[in-house]
Every structure is written in structure tokens, then in C-alpha cells.
Amino acid sequence: MGVAGAVGVYALAGGWLLPYAIKSQLPKFVETELERKASIGEVSFNPFTLRLAVQQFQLTEANGAPLFGVGGLEVEMQWRSLLRRAWSFADIRIVAPTVQLAIAPDGKFNIAEFVETLNKRKHDDSDSGMPRLIIEHFALEQGKVDMRDRHAGYSDTYTPIAFTLNNLSTLPDENGDYTLSADAGLGGKLRWKGTNALNPIGGSGVLTLDAVALPGVSTYLKSFARVAVVDGRLSAKLPYKFAYKDGQLEANLSGAGLALNDLVVKRDGAAEAFVKLKLFDVSDVGVDLLKRTVTVGGLHVSGGTLAVRRDAKGELDVANLMVPAAPAQAKPAPMVAAKHAPATSAGAASTAAAKSTSAIAATSAPAAAKSASTVATTPAAAAKSAPASNWKVQLKQLALDDIAVAAVDETVSPALKFNADKLKLSLQMQAEPTAEGLKLNIADAVFSVDNLALSSGAMTPLKLAQLGFEGGEIDLAAHRASLGRLHFDGGQLDLSRDSKGRFLFLDTFPKAGSGAQPAAKDAPASAPWTANIKTVEFNKFGARYDDASSGIKGNLQDFNLKLTDASTDLKKPLAFDGAVALREGGQLTAKGKVVPSTGAVDTDLKLTKLAIAPSTSS
Which of 20, 36, 67, 380 is most deeply packed, by most CB within 10 A? Predict the structure, then answer.
């Protein structure tokens, strides 16, 4: 009878008293401790299986605004908690949770204010260690997050959200695995899967974003840039691994990638986009926090346009995209008032002052000497000493493909326009900051751009079918640059002159400005750059010559010129081989060498079938 009675009392206390206490006391606790309101539906507890079930829990602000809610909560504890001396849960399941993220027009964030309330009620338990906790299975189903940012003017809903976690433990050397998924209302999916450990802290996993809509998120760029993302989707894959032990954090990414598709960006208030990209892809990214290295397997930009405009005042539109930071206000220096001892205690004050003065002098002298030494050596040390640890960046392959460029310069009238398309660029790069400056190396650079045209009103002074180079290399530290081949193909020039003998194309170019700042006199002289190009080629050029002052007209065609071993060493002979023909008749060929520094020329000229009479054709 005693055992049966005890079991009955236990069943009554667990099955009725505990649910009653939760339902009646929880709202009071929330109101007094959290300064919010709470409501709760049905509560049940099985004292034998240790299973607690709660329905329809709602947490709101004091004014009734929603904050957090749960459609259903089921928690099943384990009797083994007593044996393992740890809170042990077989299952925790949360159904239909909702979170309201609200930012007021004045920038106040409801979650931040809630956390602030928690911190006010937080007791100092810094000496307590991590609680012993075991959760065999945790599941969150049908979750929903409502985002309402009235400060930035952005809103979105993320649902359904699902999260599962298995074998979470704070016991030493025990791991757990988890998965998280969420869909955004404006488009896009989040997937997160991995394993973790809490003692010691560590984990690994993969965070995946799939086709996240960028236009809504771009609202948060307003504080930093005067641009709007009109269209675009973001996808990313971040495989990570981290560990924290004995005060040292190890973290790395391996094989990470990011892709932007169909990106369209406008300047604020502009009707047309200045950036359009079909694809911006970064692949095979590796980051090692401990080794301080970043490697990028490839950066690929494909199928896009870039538009730049310079207004009549000479300002580039792309130069004013960033919102300037607000200037920091200088704080007034605090006033230090001298304290005088009362006359009645002059002797004591004098004695105390003497002791204080001697103590201060004893402690301040070494400090002052150390400070003076530091001040004296800091500039030199700053100039010579390398950073404690430098990040190394390696870009294995940069590739631009099928990019169109358009530029307009309104400082002249009619406006000068430049257009080109099918821009291609590929290169490899390594960068590392050093005490002497940035160490940058570029190798295997190849570049080409087609259909270049420079026009002003009805006049087109330059057309070029293709411009390009191969075998480009740059060593920034050594101040050295080189090209294997630089070529200009299919060019057409307009060399018309007016009645005063002035070339008309000169009026199409902007006038040189006078706002350049002179170089600082005290600036240290840097080593001169050296550059060399193995071959420079002008292929199939043509030119129209119309001299209004003399009436001479002519059309040059099939102009070809090849320069060999061009360099910044002007004493080095420069070999050339060229030919040009007149449409009206005649051809000139030249082959030889020239020394740029002296102008000495050794050449073999051939002139054949030249038409002497001026042409009257237009």
C-alpha cells in the first residue's frame, strides 16, 4: 500500500500538478522576468515516460506585437539522466515555430531588445562550466520566419524551415550531426548539413544557398552604395571545418564556390543599368585561417556589359557609387580639476602628497623612458618591420569572356563615345603584403577586345577590328612588365584636316586638365619600371586623308608594321618591318632598325607605282 500510494502521488504530481504549474506560472514568469506577455494552450506530462507535450505557446511584446510562437512542443527525457549525471533527452520536437524579426523605422531590432532584457536578468555564473547535456534527436518542422524591416523598407518570409540534429552532446569527445533547410518567399533555398562537437568545440559541414533572389536583399546596400540590384540570383556552396582548443581557433574552407546569375545593377535614379552580367562565378575557393592563405581556383565572368559615363563637369558616375562615411565628431578632452587639501589637514595632506609624488616618480620614470623609447623608434620600426603574419592570396585563373564596354565623355561636344565588345581576359595572379609593400605577380595574361570604335557626332576618328596581347607578365615588387605579343588589327583612321591645317580628330578629345597634384618632394624615389614587348604588330590598317588646306586627298590601305624587341631601354635597337599602299596607286615598304634614344635609322626603303597627281575623288 505504501509503494502503491507513493506511485499514485507521483503520478498525480507529475500528470496533473506539473502541467498546472507550467500553465499558470509560465505567463507570470514571462511578464515579471522578460517584461513580455505569454500564452499557452494544452500542457500534458507522462511521469513514467517523462514525455512533456505543449500546444500553442505564444510570446509577444508588452504591446501585443508577435515575437515567438510554437504550434507544438514535445520533449522526452530519459531515466538514464540519473546514471550519466547529465540532462539526457531522447527526443525534442518543435512543430510550426514562428519568429517575427521586426526592425522599427528608428532602427530598433526587437530581438536585440529581447536579448538586452535577458542580459539585465542574467546572474553571474562565470565560474560554472558547460552543462552536461545529451540530445539524441532534435527536430524542427514547418518553421517560419517573418522579416519586416521598416527602417530599410524590406520584408520577406522564410518558410518552410526544417532542422534536424542527432546526438548532440557536451560530454567530452562526443559528436553530433545536423541538417537545416529553409525556403525564402522571394525565391531561394538554404541548406545546411554537418557534424559538431561541443567538448572540445569543433565541427564541419556544408552550407548551401540555391538561387537566392538578390533584389530584395539589395535594400541593405543603401547605407553603403548608391546602387540598386534590379535582378540576379545568388548560389553558393561553403564546405567548412573548424576547431577551438586551448585558446586557438582553426578554421578553413575547402572547395567553396559562389555564383551570381543574371545580375543587373543600376545607379540610384538611373533609367539604364550600368552593369549586366550573365554569370559571375568563383570556384574552388580555399581559406585557411591558421596558415592565413586564400586560394581561388577560378574567377569567371561571362556575358555582360559595363557602361561608364563622365559628365560635363568631369566626374565619373562610377566614382560616386559609395556613400561616404559620416565624419567622426571629436570628443572634448576631459577637464582635470586640481584638488586642494583642507587647511586643517595641511600636514597630513603634505605628507600624503610627498609619498604620492615619490611613488609616482618611481613608477613613472621607467614608464616614461619606455614611452619615449617607443615614440622614438616607432616610425622606423613601422617602416621596416613586416606584419606579424601576412595573408597570401593566389588566383589560379581569372577569365573574362564576351564582355561589352561602353563609355561616354560629355566634357566635349559632341560627346565622345567609346564602344567595344567581345572582351576576353585570362591570367594567373599571386599577391602577398610585405613590409616593402604589396608583392603582386601576374602571369600568362591573354587579352583581346573586338570592334573598338571612337566617335564624336558624325565623325569616327578610330575604328579597330581587334586589339589584344599575349604572354603578359607583371612583377610589381621588381617593377617589371612584359608582353609576348601586342597586336592591333583592322584599324581605320580619319586623318582629315581643316583649312588651317589642324587635324579634326584633335577636337574630339577632352582637353587636358590642370588639376593633377604634383608629386610630393619628400616621397622616396622608387625603382624605375622596365618593360619589354617581343613583337608589336599593326595589321591591315587603313586611313583616310583629306586636307582642306591643300586639297590633297588620299586613302592608305593595307598598312602593316611589325616591331621587334620593343622595350623601355631606348638605347636598344628596335627592328621594324612595314608596308603601306595607296588606294590610288603606289606602295611603300620599309625594313630596318632604329635606335630610339639617338634616332639613328638603318633601313631599306622601296617605293613602287606611286601616283603623283592629286586625286579629285571624294
Answer: 67
